[in-house]
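User: Hi! Is it possible to get a structure for several chains at once, not just one? Here's what I have:
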Amino acid sequence: MGDLPNNWTDIQADIVYISANGLLVSFSSEQIKLGIKYDLNSKHLKAIHKGQVSARGNVGLVASQEEGFDLKSKVLGKGGDKRFHAKFIDGVLHFPGWVTEH
Amino acid sequence: MIKLQLKNHKVWQDFTEIVENLDAKILVNEHLELCDYQLCGYWDEQDKYYETINLPRNLEAELISSSIGVTNQERFLQLKFNLKFSVVETNFAVETTYQKVGELILVYNENLEFIDERWFLDSDYLQHL
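Assistant: Yes, the chains can be modeled jointly so their relative placement is included. Here is the combined structure:
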């Protein structure tokens, strides 16, 4: 289990990584494609590294309102118009590639 | 295909009623209080990252637009605010002017529960931090 890279291009699909705050995360190939497309400077990866935060005024992972999802990555300011949603599967936070605008 | 008469559609009347009965000021002030007038993590237009931004306590928010969104899973309400704060100048006569801070969008679900936020802080404001 390796450290979560800081760039989407360095991430491999369905490999379990450990984030800076100790969270286990994995990404589908679809999610990696979306990351490369919408998150050029890997701001969402920084949010994932930071882990769960309170919902107001923070960059990080917050509760997802989408059905079947647990958390979403949240960026404030430039790049803050997209959210990447994830669900816990056997203790690993998996990002299947679901992107919304809030 | 049913052709909608959009201009006269009841949806406008219903939405106007919702917005008229909504106290947007209470919602935005509650939000600012709950985040303690602080942003933990913000990317500006030049992709510069700010670890913490402390906003002025006398921040005033003014509703500039409201909209309803519909996805296949949910319906949501989006409120957009102008953010500014007053600066008192005492050079000759006491005069209050306003400095613009930026804009804030708040997103709520059908039960008026907070879902998300989007912040856009003006570069003029960020330069003086």
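Chain A touches chain B through 26 residues (CB under 8 Å). The two ends of chain A are 31 Å apart (CA to CA).

User: Great, thank you!
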